[in-house]
Amino acid sequence: MRIGELARRTGVSERSLRYYETQGLLRAERTPGGHRDYPEAAVDRVVRIQELFAAGLHSSRIAQLLPCMRDADGGPSATATPRLVEDLTAERDRIDRMIADLVRSRDTLDEVIEAARER
What we know:
By secondary structure, the protein is mostly helical. It has helices at 3-10, 14-22, 42-54, 59-65, 82-118, and strands at 29-30, 36-37. It has a two-stranded antiparallel sheet. It starts with a helix and ends with a helix. It comes from Streptomyces curacoi.
């Protein structure tokens, strides 16, 4: 499929898809006319990349993790290693810390809002 169709099907801009390619996160064949041609599996790959970005991972970390993950379900592939488990556990712990910080911030805002309403 062409880049425009992949963008439409995933909700990701063409610019982002080109960036993913330059970062080694996504691969495309080239048509004789030089257009990118993505396989059907690229849809799952882009969704997985978006999920990892949303989790706060950087493109270099994503590039390390993607070869160890299946695109369709995000489970470990045959190349997954114990190091992958360590890395993913560290990322999960980082996300848990961020969530705790956000909850504290929200609680503080709730206190200020409540105090302002009482006045």
